[in-house]
Amino acid sequence: MKPKKPAQGGPRGARTSGTGKARPRPASGSGSAGGSRSSSGGPGSVGGAAGAGGAAGGPRGSSGGSRSGGGSRSSASNRGVTGSRKFASRGAGRTGRIARPGEEPRASSTDKPLGGEQVEGRQAVRELLIAGNRRVKEIWVASDPDESEIVSDIVEIAKTMRITVTQTARKRLDMQARSEAPQGVIAFASPLQEVELDTLLQRKGGRVPFLVAVDGVTDPGNLGALLRCCDGAGVHGVVLPRHRAVHVTPTVCKAAAGAVEYVPMAIVGGLPAALSRMKDAGVWIVGLDDAADRNLFELGDLAADAICLVLGAEGNGLSRLVRERCDMIVSIPMRGRLSSLNVSAAAGLATYEVARHRS
């Protein structure tokens, strides 16, 4: 059952859904004390320097944040964060500067904001080729590769697509890598293309939007794992802030294991304003916060409607303006001694709970 009336302090009035029916707004979580806090640590997070560029550059991010303390709690959310093959167009060679291991490149004013030019890791590179969504310029493979069927697939597909495959000394390949373990393969590609938010909000062929927005997530491993969860759960798109958030770095590509090729991403100037646009389009905004009175499993029929899950940043959780634009704040029940989950684990639970209602 959907909530009938907004609670005190929540958004007032009814808004119109995409079908033209007026409906009541759910209770806001503004009455819950405190904001969400999170950390980039914890199980599931992936190391590596943060940043928002690809091979050509991108701002360095921070993977900061601390783990929350050990007291027992009843609920938490993302706090503690909280087919067939279609070949891409053929490419030419590439040269690039050699960076220190683990270094994320800095951005210039002309860089694409989404990134993704340098893809590292076997699964990520193979999915880059299979997806065929963007031009691949060159692939480096270590001259002393480990025995791997995936690497053999990469070389075979690349030759079919007439993409240059260069045997490179592992030391040189590792120096070019921006992630901790490139697994002996790096691809250089055209940057990912962002989509417009309005495109994600479209209802075509009976599709009801299912979106995820991240509020200032700065850990690239967490963002990559989050995107992998979103792909698995059938999320239609992810909304990222343009500033104070990591975009698609080599570490993100590797952690996402190819999901960056399939999950549409929109970059918005301000997340609060983007959430307001979603609400105007008839999308319910549901934030995750461990201090919420309701839990994730009480979404009910709301999960089958147009919905956007909002997950907070490591360290700060949902920002005040983002919280104010949520129709409902929910938590993830915690039955053990730990009080929180990192953002990628929270995303996995939340997206699959919504997917369960929509299946």
Would you summarize the structure shown here?
Helix content is 24%, strand content 18%. By secondary structure, the protein is α/β, with parallel strands linked by helices. The two termini are 17 Å apart.
Map the helices and strands.
Layout: E1 14-16, E2 22-24, E3 50-51, E4 60-61, E5 75-76, E6 118-120, H1 122-131, E7 136-142, H2 149-160, E8 164-168, H3 170-176, E9 185-189, H4 197-200, E10 210-215, H5 220-233, E11 237-241, H6 250-256, E12 265-268, H7 271-280, E13 284-288, E14 294-295, E15 307-312, H8 320-324, E16 328-333, H9 343-358
Parallel strand pairs: 7-8, 10-11, 10-15, 11-12, 13-15, 13-16, 14-16
Antiparallel strand pairs: 1-2, 3-4, 5-16, 6-9, 7-9
Helix pairs in contact: 1-2, 1-6, 5-6, 5-9
Amino- and carboxy-terminal Cα gap:
17 Å
| CA-atom Rg in angstroms | 21 Å
* SSE order, one letter for each helix or strand: EEEEEEHEHEHEHEHEHEHEEEHEH
**Number of beta strands:** 16
Estimate the helix proportion, in percent. 10-25%
User: CATH first level of the domain at 83-189: which class?
Assistant: Alpha Beta
Low-confidence stretches: 3-22, 27-112
Average pLDDT level: 77
CATH hierarchy: architecture of the domain at 83-189? 2-Layer Sandwich
Q: Which fold name is given in CATH as the topology of the domain at 83-189?
A: 60s Ribosomal Protein L30, Chain: A
What quaternary form is this? single chain
Portion in beta strands: 15-25%
Number of contiguous helices: 9
Please identify which CATH superfamily of the domain at 83-189 we are dealing with: Ribosomal protein L30/S12
